[in-house]
Amino acid sequence: MAKHPELLAKYPNVEVLPSNGQVRCLFASIRNSETSRRKFVFDSDRLITMLVEAALAKLPYKERTVKTPMGLEYVGAEFCSKLVGVPIVRAGESMEKALSNIIQEVRIGKILIQRDEETALPVLIYEKMPRDIANRHVLLLDPMLATGGSAMAAVKVLLDHGVKEDHIIFVNLISCPEGIDAFCGAFPQIRVVTGEIDDCLDERKYICPGIGDFGDRYFGTD
Ligand code: PRP
Ligand code: URA
Ligand code: MG
C-alpha cells in the first residue's frame, strides 16, 4: 500500500509516482550517501524523466485522427495547450533538461529562490517569465518540497503573472507531509506529481530520511 494514505485521501490532487522495482532501485541509489556524483546525477535524471512524463500526461489533449501507411484511420490525440517549464533555481534546474528533452523548444521561465540557511524561509531573488505565461499551462519544477515555503513563494509569482491556479502542475522528486499540507492547503487546485513522500522534517527543516541537500549533490557543491 502507498505510504501516507490519509494524506493522499485529503489531497486528491497529489499523485505519487507508481512504485516498482526499478523506481525503488533508483531511489535507493540517489538516497545512498556513498553514491558517486556521476551516478547520483544519472539516476536522478532517470527518475525526473519519469516524473515529467507523468506530469505531461495530466495536460489537456484533444482527439486527432491520422491515416496510417495501411490507408486506415487511427484515432489518437494531440496536445492542445501552450506550455512553459518554470524551474525554481538552483536545484529545479536539474529538471529542465528532462523537460527540454521531451518537449523540444519548450519555453522556460526562471524563478531564483534560496532558502535562508538559518531560518529555512524562502528569499525571492529573481524571476523572468514568458510574456504570455497567463495563457499557458505551467510545470513548476523543484526536486525538494520540505516546508513548502519555496514552492509557495514561486506559485505567488506565477499567480501575480496571471497564471490560473488549475493550470499549474508542481513536479517534485521528494516531498514530506509538512510540505504537502502547507502547499496543498494554500493552493488546493494545483496538481502535484511527487516521486516519494518521506516521513518528516528534522529541526533544520531537512527531509527525513531524505537525500541531504539535493542541489549540492547534483551540482557538486557539497
Ligand atoms: C531547496 C530545494 C527547494 C527548497 C525546499 O533549495 O531545492 O527549493 O530548498 O525547501 P522548502 O520547501 O523548505 O522551501 P535551496 O534554497 O536549498 O537552494 P538550492 O536550489 O541552491 O539547493
Ligand atoms: N533542500 C534540500 O535540498 N533538501 C532538504 O531536505 C530540504 C531542502
Ligand atoms: Mg540547497
UniProtKB/TrEMBL annotation:
Coiled coil: none
Pfam family, one: UPRTase
GO molecular function: GTP binding; uracil phosphoribosyltransferase activity
Cofactor(s) the protein needs: Mg(2+)
InterPro entries attached to this UniProt entry: PRTase-like, PRTase_dom
Biological process per Gene Ontology, one example term: pyrimidine-containing compound salvage
Enzyme Commission number(s) from the entry: 2.4.2.9
NCBIfam families: PRK00129.1
Name recorded for this polypeptide: uracil phosphoribosyltransferase
Originating species: Carpediemonas membranifera
Taxonomic path: Eukaryota, Metamonada, Carpediemonas-like organisms, Carpediemonas
